[in-house]
Amino acid sequence: MERNLSKNGLINALALLAAGLGVAALSHYEKSLTASVAAGFFLVGFLVALVSWFQMRLALREEAERLEVESLSTSRGDSALFSESAAETFPARRAREQFDRWLVPAFTVLLGALEAVGVLWFYRELREGADPVSAPEPTLALAGFASIGLVLFLLGKYAVRLAQLEDSRLLRPGASAVLLGALLAGVSAVVAVCDWLGFPKYDRYIAWVLIGLFALVTVETLFALIFEIYRPRVRGKAIRLIYESRITGLLGQSGGLFSTAAQALDYQFGFEVSDTWFYKFLKTRLAWLLLVWLGILTVSSCFVAIDPGQQGLLERFGRPVEGGVLDSGLHLKLPWPIDDVVRYDTRSLQSFNVGFVPDPEKEGERTLLWTRPHYKEEFNLLVASREQQAAATPGDQTVPVNLLTVSIPVQYVIRDVRAWAYNHANAGDLIERIANREVVRYMASVDIDKIMSFGRLEASHDLQALIQKKADDARLGVQIVLVGLQDIHPPVGNKQLRVAAAYEEVIGAIADKESKVLAAEAYRAETLPRATADAARKLNEAHAAATRRSAMAAGQAAQFNHQLAAYNAAPTVFRARTYLDTFATAVGPARKLVIGPTNTSDVIIFNLEDSIARGLLNDAKITDPDKK
Fold first, then answer.
1. Are 472 and 412 in contact (CB under 8 A)?
2. What residues have CB less than 8 Å from 290, skipping those under 6 apart?
3. So what's the pLDDT on residue 44?
4. Fold of the CATH domain 350-492
5. Domain chopping of the chain, boundaries
6. What is the distance, to the nearest Å, from the Cα of residue 525 to the centroid of all Cα atoms in its chain?
7. Suppose 455 and one of 63, 343, 430, 450 were both cysteines; which one would form an S-S bond, judging by CB atoms 3.0 to 4.6 Å apart?
């Protein structure tokens, strides 16, 4: 029976080698990333099966040597020649012990390094490789993968069962690798079916999963080496092969998840997991638990919630459903993977930039100078120049164009989500290319002085109309909301710095000129009305003075005529009245003091000379003699 074990181990190694070569050839034919990663698993499995077969051969030689020594010692009697302490008597055992001590750890280190290199190589190929495309004849690859998987499954089931019956730990790694190869061949066949149905993108997804599994096996190999150093040595207990992958045994052997996990824990820590009630409960109820869990997942995938501001597209088996535009809210659908919903933001503004790449560190700057870069990258565009064209002389080689740096943010919303999703493979990239093309064309047709001054608003509207027209022609299903010319200036750079400074000086001189002209206009607008008002005022004052003097002269003449008539009628009375009026008018503002003595006759004297000083009479106290 031991010969059958050794023969089966060799068959496992050769089957893995042949299957690996076949899978590699089919992967090259089909351009399948999944099959390429599977070929890497086949290579690792072949090396493991080959080493385990060689170790099995050493174990068989040791067993044959032991039986031969026992036979000789029985027939000839016990002798020091056949004592187990004599190392020369057991060369096969010594060879096996040296192999287990030195070559097995060295092979495990080499295996781990090979697995790490394979993970890095597959990762780089998958990340930098092109998107998968459909094979010309996917049915041929499907048949090849299915045939390889069937053959490996039969060989693997026989080898695993044989290893269980004979309790052969050396046959188990190769048998597990063969069953894992059958599983990977089946996965490659499923990828070929997806390719045949028109879904080549699933090849990349499954390849990423296999790379993750490959990385997990690599990490397991590393930890196996570390655990082997600190593993407790128990005399008489079988040593687990350190190059044997428990993950491979989990996926390939029929023992299942819990048996493999229990064996690993029992071996590593000496803890009998298989005797606990929790292990027994999971072992008997795992299928029902998995069915309930899958049922819950299936039912939950029948409900889909579309957030506000979004719309969803319902797809069935990867194809759009007629009328399958879902608005915001809760909706029902068939379970995954039959139905799937792809969400799009159709109510929110989306934007991209033309002419520059923003720099997060400079977004907070409020002052923009022409002589300093404002963004991480700025692109120069050709702009027409009328001045250079007008100033060109016959035979002049001057090109009537200039370079200009523009920063144009473009904002849009998705108007027709079906057109946006299905008319083009990458609608977002297409709308950016359309906008860049129209901006370049428009800038080459507009004058530089106009676009840098008063023509910005007109240019914004023109560009919006042009981009919208091209987007409608391409049936993108978008509405251009804004095309903003937020920053236009001459090129900035080491060589163009003087150009920007010269532009800045010219624009500054023009601004100074305009400010002085406007100041003169303001002075004129202020001075002329003031002078006109002063002239009108003076004329009006002169007219008023003339009118006043003429009226006063006429009044005085009329007064004289009336006075003359009064004088002729009563000269004495007229003179007295005139005298008294004149006196009252003259002394009206003057201060008057009346002194009435009691010992004199009533004589009234008017002293019209200098008035008595005010200070002499301020403190005078006048008393009434009758009140004494």
1. no
2. none
3. 93
4. Tetrahydropterin Synthase; Chain A (3.30.479)
5. 2-76+87-269, 303-345, 350-492, 588-627
6. 57
7. 450
